[in-house]
Amino acid sequence: EHPLAPQGVVDAYRQGQDAIKNQNNAVNQFLNDESKRLKIERKDIEKSMGEEAKKKVATMRAELDRLKKVAPKKYETAHVLQEAGKNNMHVALRGDLRKKGELVPRRFIQILAGESPSPYTEGSGRRELAQSVTAPDNPLTARVIVNRVWQWHFGKALVRTPSNFGVLGEKPTHPQLLDWLAHDFVEHGWSLKRLHRQIMLSSTWQMSSRFDKEKFTVDGDNNFLWRMNPRRLEVESWRDSLLAVTGELDQRVGGKPDGEILRSKRRTLYATISRTGDRFESDAFLRLFDFPAAVSTSASRPTSTVPQQYLFMMNSPFMNERARTLGDHLNGFKEPISERIKIAYQQLYSRFPDPAEIELGKQWLGDNLSSKSWHQYAQVLLSAHELIQIQ
User: Fold this and answer.
1) Cα–Cα distance between 86 and 105 in angstroms, integer?
2) Rg of the chain over CA atoms, in angstroms?
3) Parallel, antiparallel, or unpaired: how do β-strands 389-390 and 231-232 relate?
4) Is residue 233 within 8 Å of 218, Cβ to Cβ?
5) Is the pLDDT assigned to residue 368 strictly greater than 70?
6) pLDDT digits (tens, 9 = 90+) for 7-66
7) Which of 94, 147, 331, 366 is found 20 to 30 A from 214 (Cα to Cα)?
8) pTM summary value
9) In Å, what is the CA distance from 297 to each residue of 78, 134, 287, 293, 301?
10) Region 358-362: what's the mean pLDDT?
């Protein structure tokens, strides 16, 4: 562990812990001495001591409690890796580390570096490995990064197999664009911020996702990017959006993970997950909406559509609570029903409803405008595709 605090804070914490340890040892030592003096077992000594000895133990324990109260809290730490030496490794025969084969010098991957890559000589070789990965004569790294960023913004990557740029992977849909972006990315210091800005300021990224029958007939997979790909929000963004539009999202920064994320109003970023995917309430919820397994890396998230997802939207306590909150909010306005429907659409979808949607809302709510009617109407709006999809 590496301390993330000034040395003075670290020293103060350690001094406080040393004082607690010394006082605790003093209490135990006194009881051990009394046990030997009275020839009574250690576990029974406190019952058999004299009044003066009992008072002394009480005084010592009171001091121990005081030290614990005034002791500084532990500083924040980070897990770090350090150089482990300059040892080369043997080939593990048949994958068994106990069966050592030929000793292999530390160097870059031969399939990428050529027949005789130069051995690493500095420490463990970790820095030299990083330099080899990002070397100008290794274009693969920049292409992979650019491809992943493009996939993040458009829903589909330029190379549809983002973890496989080899013979078995798919060819890029726009090879010249991929090469140009990768070259420009390296030329400008591998700046991800600039790459994001470059993509988001392009006319391609700013295109509407509106459907066009003629263009769809020619390019149904949208390989030529004649429109923005509609896609579903990731589960973290969707859950946060539900809490945001109902005015409940807790935007505090930092803190402990939350294993009961469906009962919490914190951002989904703080949901606890387990490697096995079955320890916490958060695991089941996130997995239901295509959160990848934490046990391995994932180049992209699949998008599934299963009945359990819609049952969650219709029946889960989490969705019911969001609907009640939004319904009560809308029911609290004094404006006419049509104006309240407009408020709901602006709050949820950032647009005004068309006349047909206003009329449909009026029919749904009826004449009595009960709280239950507003709750049900709010749940319909919260479960709509328009809120869960990026258009």
Assistant:
1) 10
2) 31
3) antiparallel
4) no
5) no
6) 999 999 999 999 999 999 999 999 999 899 888 888 888 888 888 999 999 999 999 999
7) 147
8) 0.71
9) 22, 21, 15, 8, 11
10) 89
